[in-house]
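Supplementary Note 3. Input sequence used for the single-chain structure prediction.
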Amino acid sequence: RMGVNVDIIDETKPLDGYKLVVAPMTYMLRPGYADRVRDFVAAGGTYVTTYVSGWVNETDLCFLGGFPGPLRDVLGVWCEETDALRPQDSNEILWRGKTYTLHEIAELAHAETAQPEGIYLHDFYEGFPAVTRNAFGRGRAFYIAARMDDDFQLDFFSALCAELAIAPSLPTTANATANVSDALPALPYGVTATMRTDGEKDYVFVMNFTPRAIEVDLGAGGVDMSTSVPVSGSYTLPPRGLLIFAR
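The predicted structure, written as discrete structure tokens, is reproduced below.
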């Protein structure tokens, strides 16, 4: 939704070189993965994971000593129990002064060395941390204990990317003038923007996956690869339309 390029890697790959690693529901941990996470965060990286993480090893045997297993020290939390909500049930959390809805899964987590950033508002885990931040070495690790709605995901990750100065593929007028502390604005729903480079030029792919025309802010833009005409500012993508421009 923010147009930030993402690499999809598995647990065997090195993490160094990234500012942010997002690893939701890392239920099964391969050998050495927890050590790579620990080294990544200690060196200054930001790591985000969620409920149902650090439960079993590569042979599906549970870790002893409490969940999230070997990630417990870097995350700074101990997860006592996992509540599975019925489809008709929900709960809420308070994060940075705003209320968000959760559904399906909510863990009862205890902050050990971590600092609570968001708390549950209802039920038997009212007041328990739902989002935590743990300082570890020069970096930090976040734990999201519940399955949150899309509003939270967008607000949380856009704020985090802004704090880490992670630039979107499509620098619009809005995010080009934003302060570092401001959340990155989202692209219109149904529109994606990704970037590829040959080392000399960047090529931005802006795609409309909806059946309606959508206006997109291209910011400074570049040269339309299909027409060789410069494009910038407000641009209307046709239904199911694609724009590729070089900059």
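The two ends are 21 Å apart (CA to CA). The mean pLDDT is 93.
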